[in-house]
Design brief:
Number of strands: 10
Domain Tetrapyrrole methylase: 64-267
Biased composition (Polar residues): 1-12
Protein name: uroporphyrinogen-III C-methyltransferase
Number of domains: 3
Shape: elongated
CATH superfamily of the largest domain: Tetrapyrrole methylase, C-terminal domain
Number of helices: 9
Helix content: 25-40%
Structural class: alpha/beta
Enzyme class: transferase
CATH architecture of the largest domain: 2-Layer Sandwich
Strand content: 15-25%
Distance between the termini: 95 Å
EC number: 2.1.1.107
């Protein structure tokens, strides 16, 4: 028994603080005390199962990889993104347009769709934040797959804040942003030594932003502009952009569904394309004229 191992000295020879040997009565008292202590010691090693479960350490938290999915097709993914997808435990993914990156996921990977699309009922960002924290808190490594690059209009700062508050580690994996790639897919660069010496990138969702800040910028790239294109054109016209400024609209850049429109700023306002433009980027600036490949600038 545990009590017998705990007390190796013979009971009869227990020494009092004063140093004299025990009498028989005192020995019986010591035996009772020893038995009580041995029972208490044994009980300490036999915790109830509920108490044992409560005292079990929580699982270590998994890492959330905030991954840029690029334009959609697999051949535009970074090597690191592809490797992470191929070994993923769980993938929380956006409305990616092209589904190529999802084809890299192993059969065992849990898929959680959290896509948002302008004009359609979608999951709210706080709910996405909560999902990421819950999955990481289970000790699982999570791939948070975003279209384009996490650095550009991806609401990644909200997810960073939630993960940090919950003590969940995270890592960025950059992707190719359509703001940079779509012009190339349409046949022109964003900068040119004479007519495109700088550019700015903004969102078409915020019509109340300071459009005058773009008055001196030769090239403006607007993401998520499909539903507000004429209004954006008027905003730029109001801050002294010329009516004949060239505009290029690129829908579903880099995919098999890519479409391109070229027109003037005045035409964007008066006669925009009738087609559903989402998802698209719009380049305002004469550098976009290089995409016509007719020698005009």
């Amino acid at each position: 028994m545990l009590g017998a191992r705990s007390f190796s000295s013979p009971i009869g020879s227990t020494i009092h603080p004063g140093g004299s040997n025990c009498t028989k009565g005192t020995a019986r008292t010591h035996r009772k005390h020893a038995l009580r202590r041995s029972q208490q010691a044994a009980g300490a090693h036999q915790l109830p199962s509920a108490q044992a479960a409560e005292s079990a350490p929580a699982p270590s938290k998994g890492t959330c990889f905030l991954v840029g999915g690029g334009l959609g097709p697999v051949d535009h993914l970074t090597v690191k993104a592809a490797k992470l997808l191929q070994s993923a435990e769980v993938c929380v993914y956006d409305d990616l347009g092209a589904q190529g990156p999802l084809e890299l996921l192993p059969p065992s990977c849990e898929r959680v769709y959290v896509g948002k699309r302008g004009g359609k009922q979608s999951i709210k960002q706080p709910d996405i934040d909560r999902i990421l924290v819950e999955l990481c808190s289970q000790g699982r490594n999570v791939i948070r797959l975003k279209g384009g690059c996490p650095s550009v209009f991806s609401r990644v700062s909200s997810e960073m804040t939630a993960l940090t508050a919950a003590g969940c580690p995270y890592e960025f994996v950059p992707g190719i942003s359509s703001a940079l790639a779509a012009p190339l897919m349409a046949g022109f660069p964003l900068t040119q030594a004479h007519i495109g010496t700088a550019f700015a990138v903004t969102s078409g969702h915020d019509l109340d932003q300071n459009w005058a800040a773009f008055a001196a910028i030769p090239t403006l790239v607007v993401l998520m502009a499909g539903r507000t294109l004429p209004q954006i054109g008027r905003k730029l016209l109001d801050v002294s952009w010329a009516p004949d400024t060239h505009v290029c609209i690129v829908r579903s850049a880099g995919t098999s569904e890519q479409q391109i429109w070229h027109m003037s700023l005045a035409s964007v306002i008066a006669d925009p394309p009738k087609e559903d433009l989402s998802p698209c980027i719009v380049v305002f600036g004469n550098v976009a004229r290089l995409g016509l490949h007719d020698g005009s600038v």
